[in-house]
Each structure stands twice: as structure tokens, then as C-alpha cells.
Amino acid sequence: MNKTFSLIAIAVASWCFVTSPAPASDKAPAAVQAEFASFISRFNAALKANDPAAIAGMSKLPFQGDAAIGDADSFTAAIYKEEFTASNRACIRRGHAVYSRDGDNNDTYAFFCGQTIYTFTRTPGGFLFTDIDTND
Predict the structure, then answer these.
(1) What is the average pLDDT score of the chain?
(2) CA angle 97, 105, 76 (to 5 degrees)
């Protein structure tokens, strides 16, 4: 009986191992990396130039689904002036982006600047700045 139980246990454990999903990669596919590198190069140039209109043009509007932040002027007033301080712009420009996939299985990159997280999401039209959140 012990031999039969052991064989069944081994079979079940093997089946679980074979059918379990592979761990998610913490590295983006090469094509996604190249696409983001091109995008963030343009984004960083706009940050260096302190160009809120260009940043708004590379952002998903309305920003974070807020209808009140639906164009470049409202984005500049509500988001850019407060969230893109000189130190935060420098942090993004010099920082290391962290790759992941969001709940909708989209490729994302995030920069962690102090208590603020800046998220960029791959959309059908390419990468866009999509979210600002608190790093808790």
C-alpha cells in the first residue's frame, strides 16, 4: 500500500509541475525593449527641454481616465507642474526602468522616484505615459 501511495504522490507532483505556468519573465522581449528605448529617448529629450506640451503628446489622455485632464493644457496644469519637478525629471532621465506586465497583460515600464512611480504602457499605438502612483 505504501508503494502504491508513493507512486500516486509522485505522479500527482509530476503532473502539477508539468502543468504549472512558467514564472513570468522580468525582462521584456527584444522588440518591446527596442520600442521602449526609442520612446523613452524622445520622452527624456522632452524632459530635458522641460517641454510639457511634448510630454502631454506622449501621454494617454484623458490622463488616468480623468475627463478633466483631457488635453495638453489641462495636463500641464494638473499633472506636469506638480509631478515633473526638476528632481523628478532628472530621476526619470537617469533612472532605470523596471519592466512588468499589468493586469491586462500589457507591457509596462516604471520609474521609481522617491515616493512616486511613473508608469509607461505599451498601447496599440506605441508606448505612452499612462500613470502616476504613490510608491507605498
Answers:
(1) 86
(2) 55
